[in-house]
Amino acid sequence: MAETLIEVQGLHAGYKGHAVIEDIDLSLNPNEVLCLIGHNGAGKSTLLKCMFGLLPRMQGNVRYGGGLTHEQVALVPEGKGVFPSLTVAENFDLGLDAAKIKGAERAARVDWVLGVLPQIREFLHRRAGTLSGGQAQMVSIGRALLKRPRVLIMDEPSIGLAPKLFQDLLGPIRALQQAEGLTILLVEQNVREALKVSDRVAVMKQGRMVWHGTPSELSNDRLMELY
Amino acid sequence: MLALQLTLTGLQAGALYALTAVGFSLIFGSTRVFHFAHGATFALAAYLFYAVEAAGYGFVPGLLASFAGAIAFGLAIDWFIYRPIQRDEGSFFTVFVASFGIGIVVQNLIGIFFGRSFVTITSPLSRAREVLDGVYVAPLAGIAFVVALICLLALGFFLRTTFTGKGLRALSDDPELVRVFGLNPRYLSAAAFAIGSALVVPAAVFTSMSSGLNPAIGHHVMLISLAATIVGGIGSIPGTMIAAFIFGLAENLSLLWFEPQWSEAVVFAILFAAIIARPSGLMGKSAAR
User: Fold this and answer.
1) Which among A48, A122, A121, A116 is positioned nearest to A81, based on CA atoms?
2) For the domain with range B2-288, which CATH number is right: 1.20.1410, 1.10.150, 1.10.3470, 1.10.10?
3) Is A216's pLDDT higher than 90?
4) Any CB–CB contact under 8 A between A98 and chain B?
5) DSSP string across B16-40
6) Is B89 close to A16, i.e. CB distance below 8 A?
7) Which residue in B208, B193, B207, B287 sits closest to B248, CA to CA?
8) ipTM field
9) What does the domain layout of chain B look like in residue ranges?
10) Which residues of B touch A77 (CB under 8 A)?
11) What tens digit of pLDDT does each residue of B212-253 get?
């Protein structure tokens, strides 16, 4: 079996000395879609921030394996992950600059993202602050994909989106995951839709990991009990 | 003719206020640090230029010393004062009080080293000539206006086209997201302080060659900058620029009706009226974005 890409062991983390998540163990394997679910305040976003390196650990470890580097991990944050005063193209520019991608490769990456999410072409030169929730989410995912990441972490991409729009957004991402071997960690409140595209599920409750398995193992009764 | 004379003087003052106010707005908009000591940067830059020029080293060394001093001062305050306070989760008000205190310390140090009296650099360019019947303009006024416009246009170009410029606009929008993008907020914060501090230098140099200096000059300039930032819209550089020109003109045109000592009151009357009529400012976020 291929080496785990991200291994979380005994992780405690939080804010201002107060632990929000405690004793978390989680592994992210190559080419899988892992769905992390749980109520608001369960600590899902805190865990993602630690895994991405935005929040320091209080205890425990987050280890990148299989040759994975931080540059190969992209995060789509909760909410509108775009800078509203910049145009969509400028948001992309900034993402490419931050990833130190230069020359012809820049245009090639943008073309590739516009191939995956072609709707972005229509508003590429609009100010991101004028976009709808769905359009902004698409740009946020597009910006993350510009890194050509091996691991894509998405924090509640369905927030503010109609179910149909969310399905339209997940479709190309799932296709990309299967075609390119992308690994996805998806945090979602829209459990039904998220489980349809996931290979594994992990459930968090009150800052702790309470269950993990495959979507087929997670019966409705079990889900109600855990959630 | 007096109105035309005051309008020309007002445009020159407005251009110089715009440079200082835009510097403050850039720092505050990007970092959310209420850098009240920006006025001290102005005073320090002006007196450094005055010291080097008065010592006989000439204009260019004076200008370079002024730039070096202003940028170093801005970066040092960010690094040694604001960051430690923020690291310990000090509040907005803690930062403001620290900044206010630095302004007072610098003002007093300048008074100790250079005296409290009025000083100025005389230059042939500062001598006014009659350009129209009863209208006198010094070449320096025109040069100051053009230089200020070039600096402001260059800043606009920088913010639109460069990596650091776009990064500063991004930092102004959402500091947390800056880290998600993989940008370095510390570098961007330092860039905001360096560029914002450098912007005061032309204004400080032209002020030392025209209206002259006293240790409290930074305080007056800072009050105008603050008013321009609020009236223009917090974080909006074009708005701040327009407001600074309005204040420069208002301060001078008020002399048509009031004694000079009331000019600052006119500025603040405009500020209060603007806050009541449009709390988000001329081009504040709720109006412009």
Assistant:
1) A48
2) 1.10.3470
3) no
4) yes
5) HHHHHHHHHHHHHHHH----TTHHH
6) yes
7) B207
8) 0.87
9) 2-288
10) 176-177, 180
11) 999 999 998 898 889 999 999 887 888 999 999 999 999 999
